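Run log, item B.
One chain of 257 residues. Sequence copied directly from the ordering sheet:
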Amino acid sequence: DVLMSDAWGWWKMTPELTLSGGYTGTLARVNFGIDGSCTCFVTNTAPSRLNPGDRTQVRLSYASGPVSFGVALEDASFSDPALGANLPSDTLGFSSEVRWKGEGYSVEVSGGYWDGGNGRRDAYQIGLGGKLDMNDFLSLSAAAGVGRASTVTSAPANDYWRTSMLATAKLSDSVSAEIGYGYAENDQSSFSSFAYSGTTGSHFDAKVHSVIAGIYYEPVTQLTLGLEGEWQKWNSDGNAAGTVNKDLEVVSVGLVS
């Protein structure tokens, strides 16, 4: 017998068309901006990311020249505090992605829709992103998206929009640096990341600014050393747990080895 927690397999039906399945990242993820492009060993903890996570799926993909796209039928269950989503395990979802890659640039449009099941709202996300190589040393990447997390129908809807930008510089053959900015706005938020601001109550609106930076030294392929930092500023207002208009700043620094 063979037992494994994660698996992925594929069948290349034609040179352009591939049928695959298993457990991997959803096509709804935006693969640009901070979340899609940063090195981020210990940073990227703010809720500006546009990655609904991994899930079991069956996927059909097409690629020809600069154009590629894919569609997938997915297990809709997932739980990510920063996305505010927590769907039951007996629901299904759909995700899709279209990408164009040219000389020195890439653009992408992606989206997903997940059934919330009985007593919960359906979740969705639509996003776009791109990357531009300015020269051999500097690249810029950006992403933006809107969506709704799954909440019980008796609670307010949890809508969000998020955006981020990242600049990456190759300072030498072995040294690179990056700096990025992210912003998230969550209406009627109920996700548990509000533990940051001293409460896990619901019925909040949240606005979160974040800045990340890192510098890395890679003398050989198998070794990376670096220093990373992240700053977040949270502003929340609402009526749960007696918290109104609460601000909080979070700073984290980490060594990479």
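Observations after the first pass:
- Residues 6 and 23 are 6 Å apart (CA to CA).
- The mean pLDDT is 82.
Flagged for discussion on Thursday.
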